[in-house]
Amino acid sequence: MLRSRIPFYLAICTTATFAVAPVAAEGEGPVFSVHVSNGVISPSIIEVPANTRFKLELHNDGATPIEFESIPLRKEKVLSPGASSFLIFRSLDAGNYAFFDDFHLDMPPARLIAK
After folding, report:
1. Cα separation of 104 and 40, whole Å?
2. Does residue 8 register a pLDDT over 80?
3. Which branch of life, at top level (predicted)?
C-alpha cells in the first residue's frame, strides 16, 4: 500500500517546488550604502534617482543594535551589532525623506533625497 502512494507524494512535492520557485529578478539598479555606528548615520545625506529602482545596503558598524526607521518611506529594519542587510525601493517620487536610528533617538536624522 505504501509503495503505491510514493509516486503520488513525489508528484505533489515536485509540483509545489515549481510553484514556489522564484522568478528571475530584473536589474536592481544603483546600490547605496549606509553605515550606522551607535546612532551615527554615515553618510547623513544620500542622493538617489527618483522614479528608479534602487537598493539601500545597511551596515551596523557599532556595538549596539540599530533600527533603520523612516515614517515617510514606511520602512524599518532592525540590525544587531556587526550585521548587514538591505532594503529595495521600487520607485520613489522626487522629494526629501528623513530616516533615523530608532534605538538612538538622541542622534540627528539623516536624509534620502530623490532627484
Report:
1. 8
2. no
3. Bacteria
